[in-house]
Amino acid sequence: MKRLPRIVKVISIRNFIIKTLWNNGEVRDIDFKPLMEEWKENKEEMYAPLYDAKIFRSVSVSPEHTLCWPKIKIKLVFKGITKESTLDLDPDVLYEKSKLTEKYERPHIGLILKAARENAGLSQTQVAQNSGTSRNYISRIENEQSDIQVDTLYKIVTLGIGKELQVSIK
User: Fold this and answer.
1) Choosing a second label site near 51 at 20 to 30 A (CA), which of 36, 83, 145, 155?
2) Contact, 30 vs 5, CB < 8 A?
3) What are phi and psi of 162, to 5 degrees?
4) What does the H/E/C string look like for 20-34?
5) Helical (H) or strand (E) element with 38
6) How far is CA 60 from CA 100, 102, 169, in A?
7) Pairwise CA distance, residues 47 & 15, whole Å
8) What is the pLDDT of residues 112-123, one digit of tens each?
9) Residue among 141, 142, 48, 28 at smallest CA distance from 91
């Protein structure tokens, strides 16, 4: 079953548009103006406090990784039992109503390793033997069909290919 994206953090809030970072690496803008029009049209009163810009800006990310307004209390009735809760919104609806503005591009470690191996004139088997892994694993990494841990990457680069590993964060 595919995991649905969830909100990691609120990046900014401007003119009823919330810029959010999602756990799939996407940055998405959620424009609440059309949502507010729907709420007004459908007479969904529980959302009325959000029309106030100051209250709207009090948004946070809930433990369930969706947008919530902790200061807005709502009453939920289920099977005759009333429970008070904070106002939060369905993350699937937010994702659907949002607009992609940036996407995380995964680094292509496998392609980098393949180029380094080929430049060193080594086969996958040689790299695997030198680094204590299997040729099949080297192949999966080079074809980006397998993730790699940093310590394994270090072994493959330094022991398997005979190069120095450098990692930078800019």
Assistant:
1) 83
2) no
3) 80, 30
4) EEECCCEEEEEEHHH
5) helix 32-41
6) 20, 21, 28
7) 17
8) 999 999 999 999
9) 28
